[in-house]
Amino acid sequence: MNTYAQELRATAKAMIAPGKGILAMDESNHTCHKRFEKLGIDKTVEQRQAYRELLLTTPGLNEYISGAILYDETIRQFTRKEVPFTKVMADSGILIGIKVDTGAKDLAGHHGEKVTEGLDSLRDRIAEYYGMGARFAKWRAVITIGEDIPSWACIEGNAHALARYAALCQEGGLVPIVEPEVLIDGNHSLERCYTVTEETLRTVFDQLFCQKVAFDQMILKPSMVISGLACPIQANVEQVADATVRCLLDNVPASVAGIAFLSGGQSNERASEHLNAMNVKYKSQCPWSITFSYARAIQQPALEHWRGNDANVAAAQQLLLHRAKCNSAASLGQYSAEMEKTPVLV
Question: How many angstroms separate the CA atoms of 329 and 327, rounded?
């Protein structure tokens, strides 16, 4: 039996505590710079540090956020007052998470498909991150829907990598967030997304079982079953909630510690609406908690307001807290459109 098993179960339970979700702020420097560039923010290490400090020092964030996923650079950074970000998080009771994959790369022999890399030296990196205070990790696989794709090779290759990552995490004391993202890009229907998501989840859990991953010591971070962005017929909120929960109930073991959805390119409000609808209608039927692990759907209003200006930090933090509060309410089935009308800037 894994010597970390009891600790892993406790961490997983804390990650999906009632009314709380996970803040994804593990964007690579490249992705961070792309978002900065759109807003005219200088693409420097100093601005990356300043923005991450804004996020992690938001007053009251721990009321709605159980943990935050960091990037390798971020877990090593300090505030301007030279306090390690890891100490800021620990002091506020926010669990430290870390992205450990090295990105989705072209899958050889399969045009238009990706496989996530990063297994090399992962055991050693997990040991280092655990020593730095991390207690959970994340690995994202990318599944694209298109003409004749995804292929079986893509789904199986990504599922196998996710499972090996998860096994290494549990061996080293980190709760693995298993993230098989079926991308929203494309003109596919809700039904097509359901079929691909179902095949992906079945394959992922088959591989997790083969690698002896303990389901009660991991968190699943799936995408929702949703119409492609370019699909002429867009499923409504209730249809997305129905299809997503049905797919999860049919394909995710009941012993999994919790579900924390990614937002995957949805608008801020729609990501909250979908999560809320699932909890309103199905909370009592699901064996696991259903919450959020959003990045842009929490961060974007704060980033757009901040724009690299220190004078905007306090107001930007209020915007961040507002989105965290809305999604917290959605995870309890208590979100409403009225919450979006609440003025948050002072």
Answer: 5
Spatial contact of 48 and 73, defined as CB atoms under 8 Å apart: yes
Instruction: List the catalytic residue out of 27, 221, 273, 325.
Output: 221
Percent of the chain having pLDDT more than 70?
98
The whole-angstrom separation of Cα 11 and Cα 26 is 19
Roughly how many angstroms between the first and final C-alpha of the chain, as a whole number?
A: 53
pLDDT confidence of residue 345: 56
- Please report the pLDDT score of residue 332 as a whole number: 98
Rounded Cα–Cα distance for residues 102 and 105 (Å): 9
Indicate the angle between helix axes 29-39 and 296-306, nearest 10 degrees: 50
Cα separation, 191 vs 72, in Å, equals 37
Whether residue 304 lies in the annotated active site = no
86/47 Cα distance (integer angstroms): 18
Q: How many residues does the chain have?
A: 346
Rounded-to-integer distance, Cα 48 and Cα 303, Å: 11
| Whether the bond into 253 is cis, omega within 30 of 0 | no
Q: Which of 27, 53, 179, 273 is catalytic?
A: 179
Whether 53 sits among the annotated catalytic residues: the reply is no
Contacts of 105 (CB under 8 A, 6+ apart): 114, 115, 116, 117
Whether 100 and 129 have beta carbons less than 8 Å apart is answered as yes
Whether the Cβ atoms of residue 117 and residue 105 lie closer than 8 Å to each other: yes
Phi/psi of residue 183, each to 5°? -65, 145
User: Rounded to whole angstroms, how far apart are CA atoms 284 and 104?
Assistant: 36
Distance separating alpha carbons of residues 319 and 331, to the nearest angstrom: 19
- Domain 5-341 sits in CATH at 3.20.20.70
Pairwise CA distance, residues 58 & 277, whole Å: 28
CA distance 300 to 322: 12
Band of residue 344 on the pLDDT scale cut at 50, 70, 90 = low
Q: What is the pLDDT of residue 2?
A: 84
**Which contiguous run of DSSP H or E holds residue 20?**
none
Domain boundaries, the chain: 5-341
- pTM recorded for the entire structure: 0.97
